[in-house]
Amino acid sequence: MQNNLFYRLILHIYWLTVCNCYFFLFCIPFLLSLFWFWNHPNTITLLLTLVSFIPIPPALTASYHVMGKIIREKQVELTKSFFYGVKTNFIQCSMLGLFQAILTIILAVDILFMKQHALGLYVIPFLYILLLLNVCVGIYLYPTRGAS
Question: HSE of 113 in the Cβ direction (CA atoms, 13 Å)?
């Protein structure tokens, strides 16, 4: 029964769905802060939004951890593996995620500032390349953290 293709397909869909639900639970504080503070930006609301971003990188790493475990072992205790991945990588991923978020904010502010100057025509593409490089580093960094 368990070697049936339909059963394995349903089981993988279930694992993906539950893993995404767990990841979404970790994203809720950030989404709520964006929803409440989007129209009233000031220093405190931006700091609250940045602090609410802290759980997202460890949850992303835990998702990678669980998906890698599914691929390697073909079977997984999803809840246990997900929260183990969050627990073991929380500090490192939170710090790396905060660094990337701060870097993204700095680059976005620089882009907005440079749009008001004539020199910005030459500098803005470079800033966009740095922003893309920041995303590429995150794409590489979080799966390697999840391998532990």
Answer: 8
